[in-house]
Amino acid sequence: MELLCIRQWISGLLPTWLSAWCIKPVGGALVRQEPEYILLALMGSPLKKIMLCSSEKEIFSVEEQVMVQHSVIINNMIEDGSYNHEESKIPLDCVDSKTLKKVIDYCTHHTHHHNDNQEDLEAWDAQFLNVDSNGLYDLLMAANYLEIRNLLDLIYGTIKNMIKGKKIDEIRRIFNIKDHGFTPEEEEQNRKEYPHFY
Amino acid sequence: MSLRKVFRSRKFSKSFMEVNAAVAPKVEGGEKKEEAGEEGNAWSGMLPELLGEIIRRVEVEEEQWPQRQNVVACACVCKRWRDMTREIVGQPHNNGKITFPSCLRKPGPRELPNQCLIKRNKKTSTFYLYLALTPSFTDKGKFLLAARRYRFGTHTEYIISLDAEDLSQGSNAYVGKLSSDFLGTNFTIYDSQPPHAGAKPSSGRSSRRFASKQISPQVPAGNFEVGQVSYKFNLLKSRGPRRMVCSLKCPATPLGETSDITSLDGNKTNSKDQATPTCTVLKNKAPRWHEHLQCWCLNFHGRVTVASVKNFQLVATVDQSQPGGKGDEDTVLLQFGKVGDDTFTMDYRQPLSAFQAFAICLTSFGTKLACE
User: I need a surface site. Which of A151, B90, B329, B339 has the fewest CB within 10 A?
Assistant: First the structure.
């Protein structure tokens, strides 16, 4: 087989994000790295994984690429070298195992399926956020803590839709707000002022 | 730097810690699950930045009524949500928008006027002010204020209220009143709330306190003079246009000079206002005589469709919200005119508030003896 065909065949094996990634400066110009070298590099060492440790001390192993793509905090840590792949795990004391697993699911899915069409992704997201308000709260805190922008936007959008068009008593029930903090007089005044909102 | 230090150095919000208060001090808590009941507190007491982000997103989407009621709903869910909602509604980019009843005493928008409709019921001498939700003059709109005329021997009064059914001075919904002299040429506008700190009530009312319908704390009862409107005596009695002059104590407009932007219930003012309340003087724009059509003409830009002596446009001669206090005599700050038998449009903008604009428009109804 000619060298050109082999190169094309190897290029075809690589995911698009990796091919696009492989550009290096040569003599002032940017040229694509030969695909066969990339494949050799990949075969040489498995995709890098990092360890995340939940507040319950459970360890989750996840592809570095996946977390780096989504979490600004983790990306910064990897970049500034404070994470040592052989020894370290990242402690996430504010995120419990259940929530961390979900967050990892989200990031993994969105990395591997970023080429899917918009409708499928949205359907998956809707299913992903089909949780009770406690779970949603935990996800919001985790996404905020890890600075995962697109997950945050998604959660905000969901919360906003949970509020819109609802009566106040219903909003309190949905968000499990038992103590509204108003004095009895204030609450009575509210109800008189906006009877149709309750 | 160790990994643990990297994460520990991140700022924890107090409210997040409060939620996990029952947990061991090192925040190693996976015990969040146990506080199922406290999760409820979590939503009401969450990080202010996050709560602010949620409410901001609701507010941004619901600029117009009736959807804007979702913003009001947020303000009624719990105390923390109310504080955050007021903060967001009070931000400069939201000036002029009508959200809470207290917004009716705040200045209108800076650029484009708020378009309103006034519907008159001749039988009951009642007038209803609506915020127009569509350009049509026949659509309902969002109800803002109602006013009823009461004729006494030597003067006439219009009682202005937040409640379309309850138009009495003793009501919780009482906002203010308009009082006219016998001739119907001089009017005084009274507000049930003081326009600035230290203002004294005009009439000798008893100082009983009642909660006003304002999502705001209790205010003392009484009427505070906030403006005057006078129509010029027309000696020649020709059917020429009226001339009117208004002087108003205006709410401080947030142009950076005065301004307490977070005065969400209209009661806080800065120290400058305590000394000299801002004052605005308006006069009506003189119409031009159209030789060909043989009538007086003003350009109402389609918002007024029926000729009437009641129609007017007001411009400012003294306007403290402008540099130097000089009014821009070209910008129409209040426009009022007839579009149907009992339907009128009212367009107002900063520095006027909806309440003041409505009161000034009411002066245009009723007979003006010796004026026309």
Answer: B329
Under an 8 A CB cutoff, do B39 and A92 touch?
no
- Can you give the CATH number for the domain in which B353 is found? 3.20.90.10
Last residue of a domain, one of B29, B62, B89: B89
Output the 3-class SS for B345-365.
EEEECCCCEHHHHHHHHHHCC
How far apart (Å, rounded) are the C-alpha atoms in residues B344 and B357? 13
The reported pLDDT for the residue numbered B361 is 95
State the residue range of the domain holding B68: 46-89
Strand-pair partners of A25: A30
ipTM, two decimals: 0.73
Residue B202 Cα to chain centre, angstroms: 22
Q: What angle do CA B221, B225, B228 make, to 5 degrees?
A: 150
pTM: 0.72
Classify residue B116 by its DSSP letter.
E
Give the pLDDT band (50/70/90) at residue B252. low
- Residue A71 DSSP class: B
Least confidently predicted of A146-160, B82-96, B317-331: B317-331
Type of residue numbered A193: E
Is-contact A122 A110, C-beta < 8 A? Answer: no
Task: Evaluate if residue A99 carries a pLDDT over 50.
Answer: yes
Could you tell me which of A77, A80, A79, A110 has the C-alpha nearest to residue A92? Answer: A77
Residue B331 predicted with pLDDT over 60 = yes
- What distance in Å separates the CA atoms of residue B291 and residue B288, rounded to the nearest whole number? 9
CB atoms A96 and B32 under 8 Å = yes
Q: Which contacts qualify for A71-74: CB closer than 8 Å, 24 or more apart?
A: A71/A107, A71/A146, A71/A147, A71/A148, A72/A146, A72/A147, A72/A148, A72/A149, A73/A145, A73/A146, A73/A147, A73/B10, A74/A50, A74/A146
What Rg do the C-alpha atoms of chain A give, in angstroms? 24
pLDDT tens digits, B271-300: 334 434 568 899 998 888 888 888 878 889
In the DSSP assignment, the letter for residue A47 is P
How are beta strands A59-63 and B224-231 bridged, if at all? unpaired
Q: How many domains does chain B have?
A: 2
pLDDT score recorded for residue A80: 84
Query: Which residues of chain A does B10 touch, with a Cβ-Cβ cutoff of 8 Å?
Result: 73, 145
Return the residue in B10, B71, B77, B218 with the most chain A beta carbons within 10 A, the one to mutate for interface testing: B77
SS3 B209: strand
Domain-embedded: residue B12: no
pLDDT recorded at residue A116: 85
Note whether B294 and B190 are same-domain residues: yes
| Cβ contact, residue pair B30, A193, below 8 Å | no
Residues B162 and B300 in one domain: yes
Whether the CB of A177 is below 8 Å from some CB of chain B: the reply is yes
* Contacts with B58 from chain A: Cβ below 8 Å: 160, 163-164
Chain A residue closest in CA terms to B37: A176
